[in-house]
Amino acid sequence: MPMEKLVFYGFKHQQIPPSFIIPPEKRPQKLDLPVVYHNTPIIDLKGGAEGALDRSATIQQIFKAIEEFGFFQLVNDGIPEELMEEVMEVSKEFFEMPVEDRLSLYCEDPMQPVRVSSSIVYENEEVHYWRDKLRHLCHPVEEFKHLWPSKPTKYREVIATYSVKVRALALKLLDLICEGLGLQPDYFNGELSQMQSILINHYPPSPDPSLTLGLPKHIDPNVITILHQGDLYGFQVLKDGEWIDVKPLPNTHLVVLGHQLQIISNDKLKGVEHRVVSTNVPRTTIAMQIHPSMDCVVEPAKEVTDDVNPAKYRSFTYQEFVDSYLTSVIDTQKTTKPFKILA
Ligand code: OGA
Ligand code: NI
């Protein structure tokens, strides 16, 4: 096991190893505390009860939020508060266990269905980021559950319940988005949402948050991500050329659109550039990601393209996109370039 890959496991860092120091032009600029939060969009799903929701008003709110900010936070989304607390608890416990308990899941192959990794180095980048992660597939739950971590003891049960509930929530949001785009009602229901992964991010405290980053600027590769970020700050989005801090609200999920939704909507909807800054306290987040199946063919929906608005992207398989993403994630323009139809 290369030691530099295990740099966070069980260590308390007094100093930042040089390979983790972010080049000056990519360092977070303002780290003034207390953090100043912008007013960012909040969408109320009325407890998830179908009848209570005014669909067209909600669709309008979602589209406005995406247009202005590229993301939104959900309140009353029907995911029980106790479940969110339990999910956060088992996630934190996982990263508090002794290193040995995680080592058997350590793996550098991004295609493994269950894996622990650390301090990612994206290709073409020398820098390591101040983050450990556990990522695994979770749909259908029965197919993957036996591969998930067996410790903490409650992990499998809690994450299984959460995976099913968040999947239903994500599909409901996709339904609303589908309706807003004028696509056929089941557009996202098959292969386009077949794969689901959970990504548990653990950001250890940084000895100097001005020199490290939890995650660099990126757009998620998948369709849609539902993030449970607990109550600690660290998540930032790029808005009008400025990084803004997003206030962590208790019992909410944060929704970001990924590259696939942007492409399917032919750029009517945009994936949002975001990053994670380091802080001096440990922070754990849980990202549930809906992806197409690997061999699913993705392309701009026929309903959003015509002679006036021709398709801006060619068809490709999600596998092709992921392979390309892994080599270009650092540059959000480059990520979609191989799939663009040039005017
Ligand atoms: C991600 C991500 C944000 C966070 O996992 O893609 O952007 O706050 N996470 O952990
Ligand atoms: Ni992300």
Automatic annotation (TrEMBL):
Claim: Metal-binding is one of the keywords in the record: yes
Pfam families recorded: 2OG-FeII_Oxy (PF03171), DIOX_N (PF14226)
Family annotation (InterPro entries): DIOX_N (IPR026992), IPNS-like_FE2OG_OXY (IPR044861), IPNS-like_sf (IPR027443), Oxoglu/Fe-dep_dioxygenase_dom (IPR005123), Plant_2OG-oxidoreductases (IPR050295)
Coiled coil: none
Keywords: Iron, Metal-binding, Oxidoreductase
Domain Fe2OG dioxygenase: 191-292
Gene3D superfamilies assigned to the protein according to its UniProt record, in alphabetical order: B-lactam Antibiotic, Isopenicillin N Synthase, Chain
GO MF annotations in UniProt: metal ion binding; oxidoreductase activity
SUPFAM superfamilies: Clavaminate synthase-like (SSF51197)
Family: Belongs to the iron/ascorbate-dependent oxidoreductase family.
Name of the protein: Fe2OG dioxygenase domain-containing protein
Originating species: Stephania japonica
Organismal lineage: Eukaryota, Viridiplantae, Streptophyta, Embryophyta, Tracheophyta
